Request: fold
Amino acid sequence: MLMRHPRHVRLALATATAAALTGGLLTFSAATATAADSTTVPQADFNGDGKGDVAFSAHGAYVGGRAGAGQIVALYGTATGVSSAKRSTISQNTAGVPGTAEAGDGFGAESAYADFNGDGYDDLAVASPWEKVGTDTNGGGLTILWGSLGGLTGKASDIPDPAPSSHDYWGKDLAAGDFDGDGKADLAVGSSASTIYVYKGGFSTAGTPGGRTTIKPPIQPGTNDSPYGPMSLTAGDVNGDGRTDLIVDGYETESDYGWNTNYFVPGSASGLSVASAKALKPGIVTGIGDINGDGFGDIVSGAGWDDRTEDGTPVPDAANGGKVNITYGSASGPAGTTGVTQNSGSVPGTSEKGDGFGWDLDMGDVNGDGYQDLVVSAPNEDIDGVTNTGMVTVLYGSAAGLDVSSGIQAFAQNTAGVPGNDEKGDLFGADVKLDDVTGDGRADLVVGSYENSANGAVTYLPSNGSVITTSGSRTVSPSTSGVSTSGTPQFGAVFAD
Reply:
């Protein structure tokens, strides 16, 4: 089963084997999004050509012989989608990038994109949470890779930890958005502490922000909470006021690996307002987009673990197979919530213990109808006796909300036209993205997996304008992308948001 990867501090869907593959390092981190308004889900465009680009980590990759030093890969959109033919592969040994590739740094373990310096090209904030800083083994590092006409080239600036003695894992949680509505992209940064640092937009290319503030979101701790701070940050406009709001995932209770509380922290003219925070349904990975087309961002959170309450009591309605909670937005913020499992309506499959439905998710408009659609992964899905091979499900938005009755699509590697085959432990759907990488105004599907014993792979499935199709699909592999297959690079396990 899939273990917690650094983007989400979630229940280990993993076996001891998967834990061994990652050296026991992957114990936390964030799910982020950078929605600038409530109706669309922005995609990265690092080279300014109008086509979406996809960035993802190979945070376990060998670099210069150093195990787990980590790399980030950016695939640039073209009229025919993404492939390794047009890409950037960057590590801390790339000219211009601060630091040096060292064993266990995990460069790329978390990342978030936005145009931080206002030059018209999206930039990429990249964390190396296990970077050694002085005598602190897990001090963490954070770098902004600057976009340009040539994309991400290695031109970069360091964002140092302002309180290195107070916490570890600097940069393990990232989210970008315009929290004060001034038209400039801000960056929220988390660590092992409960304090979140918010860097105001208007960065210089030397990495100097327009200012810095801190917030301490509410936390509802349990008995044995993780010491790693908030588990994830997600940004998007829920109340439609033109300012980005922040979803903060609260502490994990280690005794049952399943309980958590999310909090909605609204943006305001003075930035994020903790005083106006509201508690939400649980879920570690979160996306924000307008599913029902009412102009407000809807909050979708995946609870891919074996669902439990804080005291460890199983929650039967998720059938221990995972659940997605959809909280619809309104002018006053979060409104009504509905839940979706594999037992809902015509959703493919059946909720079975350990499926991990909701392990990852993303939103985008596949058919151009103005409603955001949703892809949900179940990387531990067993198919025809093949254990943990994985599956992803695409559900479509409508004026009535998420449609669980018709039009639903499901893809696995045994689906006709999808590259590869269902194999034990592939974990197809370890991460997912819905972005328009062809420039036709329709979101395409990109799927990460742990193919070949955590070497990893990325599968591209295009939109044909109406639905996701396998025509023109392809796989992008580490070996064709400048990433070593030594060890367990986990290529494509964590997409930038």
